[in-house]
Amino acid sequence: MNAAPPFDKIALIGFGLIGGSIARAARVQGLAKQIVATAHSAKTRARVSELGIVDAVVETNAEAVADADLVILCIPVGACGPVAQEIAGHLKPGAIVSDVGSVKGAVVRDMALHLPRAAHFVPAHPVAGTEHSGPDSGFAELFINRWCILTPPEGTDPDAVEKLRGFWAALGARVEIMTPDHHDLVLAITSHLPHLIAYTIVGTADELEGVTQSEVLKFSAGGFRDFTRIAASDPIMWRDVFLTNKDAVLEMLGTFNEDLSKLTRAIRRGDGEALFEHFARTRAIRRGIVEIGQDSAAPDFGRPHAQLGKKAE
Amino acid sequence: MNAAPPFDKIALIGFGLIGGSIARAARVQGLAKQIVATAHSAKTRARVSELGIVDAVVETNAEAVADADLVILCIPVGACGPVAQEIAGHLKPGAIVSDVGSVKGAVVRDMALHLPRAAHFVPAHPVAGTEHSGPDSGFAELFINRWCILTPPEGTDPDAVEKLRGFWAALGARVEIMTPDHHDLVLAITSHLPHLIAYTIVGTADELEGVTQSEVLKFSAGGFRDFTRIAASDPIMWRDVFLTNKDAVLEMLGTFNEDLSKLTRAIRRGDGEALFEHFARTRAIRRGIVEIGQDSAAPDFGRPHAQLGKKAE
How far is residue A202 from each of residues A255, A256, B16, measured CA to CA in Å? Predict the structure, then answer.
């Protein structure tokens, strides 16, 4: 039985890691009769055309959203308000408008201001990614077993929410609904603060006196290299995250700083018991994450190892 | 041609991730006529016997080092001094004594006090590991393309240093020589501070008000899960690292805190330019690490992804 695709036309505005992964996965799953994409830069649009993943690449956002029944903004959160304003007059009545932004509170308020009442606004955030960006970086499997959080404003049409939930489920994601403010608090600790810390320590290592950059790179397998991965994420996306989720990030930072001071004091005083107690406790969190399938059980994230050749005989 | 093994008897004191990996790799490479191991706990010794990787498992350190021409302490750095004292009277004249500790300054001083002049003391630190520990966690490929740092005290017999260098090279490692103090400064930034930060943030996430632990686990793919890996490392090993490399760690922490304050201020003031400039700079470090082969070029450390099933037709 060949079920009809749930959407006639999906419009993707932006084609980086997330937009490109949605396009690939939606195509594999047959979720639309037509997928149309656009992107801010001519170079990206040209590359998307070459890739041949979508049915059409158009030059303007207005053109992209015309007649679309699902519009997804896959752009840095700072651009979401202006783009919502730009497309507002071109949306088909009854269209679902969504996004993929890592911040919800400020962004939802910004977008909602502009969108017409005849459109269904269902903000979304797929908690998935890699350190790569650009039109070539996406892949269809990115969202499998990852969570996608929907934050529909009060009064949103439940059918529209259900339709978007089904879309993300078809991409392999597990869907949860929460308020924008709670989303921003949760993501501040599970994503934003980790990125800030990683960006900080990688910057610290880059500017040391007494240790050369070459030494930092060579001996990075001692732990440092793990941090460099998320500190290689897209700088525009992350600038916007910190500008728009300032309060929650600063709150988490405050708690983190208190905890760091506590451990620093234990080191300064040579309090081995306090250190051991803390280090033993954090192991359980890793186990929990692996148990619920949010990370690989393989040691070292399953990083590949070369083979050890037998000694010449 | 069947070359004679470079060592007659290697004694491994301790059989965790590192000791167990040395044993497996040395066996594959045929580096000793005999490999003897011991461990502090009877349970570990029993498991090592079962594994059948080494030629003999003995109960005491004294027994292990008897007649050995290479002795390697593969134990937490806090135990190195006492064990050096314990084995001192049982070493064969001319034996090479080494370790694998992540701290050198304090540990080298501790061990050197006890070791007899007739033994060659060549401290070593293979910068490699995973978050797993115990006798089952080791594997022969762990050291391939990782660096092993030797910190021989002034006046050490160059032949002994050369012999240990050859040993580590045969395990697949690249070898570098530096002073204990410089080692401790370099590792403070490439390993110890990253672990401290990871242990801190994982602890912070564990005790939050307003965000449940279940939420932290579910949405950890936003970046947090990366930190949980190194925060799952052996608590005794890491307690000892911070107790014995206090000064260098506190120095790096000071610089890190300054840098974190700078970024915090940029967030508080909404200074997007400062954030962008910092985030763009740190990308280059990741590229450098991948280019010199110290991390995988695959996105997301090459973490595995499930396949997206085709829609039922």
Answer: 21, 18, 30
- Looking at CA atoms only, how far is residue B113 from chain A in angstroms? 22
Of B273, B278, B198, give the one whose Cα is nearest residue A203: B278
DSSP A221: G
- Find out whether A151 and A104 touch, Cβ atoms under 8 Å: yes
Short-list B23, B76, B38, CA closest to B234? B76
In the beta sheet, which residues pair with residue B39? none
Buried residues in A231-255 as b, exposed as e (16+ CB within 10 A): bbbbbbbbbbbbbbbbebbebbbeb
CB contact under 8 A, A29 and B311: yes
Chain A residues with CB inside 8 Å of B275's CB?
235, 238-239, 242-243
B216: nearest CA partner in chain A:
A190
Do strands A70-73 and A56-57 pair parallel, antiparallel, or not at all (unpaired)? unpaired
Least CB–CB distance from A282: residue in B189, B190, B232: B232
* Residue of chain A nearest B203, judged by CA positions: A282
Asked if A312 lies within 8 A of B1 by C-beta distance, the reply is yes
What is the phi/psi pair of residue A98, to 5°? -140, 180
Of A218, A232, A253, the CB nearest to B282: A232
The pTM assigned to this predicted structure is 0.95
| Residue A2 pLDDT > 70 | no
pLDDT tens-digit map of B168-208: 999 999 999 999 999 999 999 999 999 999 999 999 999 89
| B7-178 and B183-295 have identical folds | no
**Sign of the CA dihedral running A250, A256, A259, A264:** negative
Contact state of A303 with B301 under an 8 Å Cβ cutoff: yes
CATH number of this structure's domain B7-178, picked from the four choices 3.40.1000.70, 1.10.3860.10, 3.40.50.720, 3.40.1690.10: 3.40.50.720
List chain A domain ranges: 7-178, 183-297
Nearest CA-CA partner of A91 in A126, A75, A115: A115
For B208, name the nearest residue in chain A, comparing CA atoms only.
A255
Query: H-helix or E-strand containing B153?
Result: none
Which chain A residues have a beta carbon less than 8 Å from that of B302? 301-304
Q: From A28, which residue of chain B is nearest by alpha-carbon distance?
A: B310
ipTM of the complex, rounded to two decimals: 0.94
For B263-306, write each residue's pLDDT tens digit.
999 999 999 999 999 999 999 999 999 999 999 999 999 998 88
pLDDT the model gives residue A313: 35
Residue B115 to residue B121: CA distance in whole angstroms: 8
CATH label, B183-295, candidates 3.40.630.30, 1.10.3660.10, 2.60.120.260, 1.10.1040.10: 1.10.3660.10
What's the gap between Cα A93 and its chain centre? 29
pLDDT at B308: 81
Do A78 and A96 contact (CB within 8 A), yes or no? Answer: no
> Architecture of domain A183-297 in CATH?
Orthogonal Bundle (1.10)
Shortest Cα–Cα distance, A79 to chain B (Å) = 14
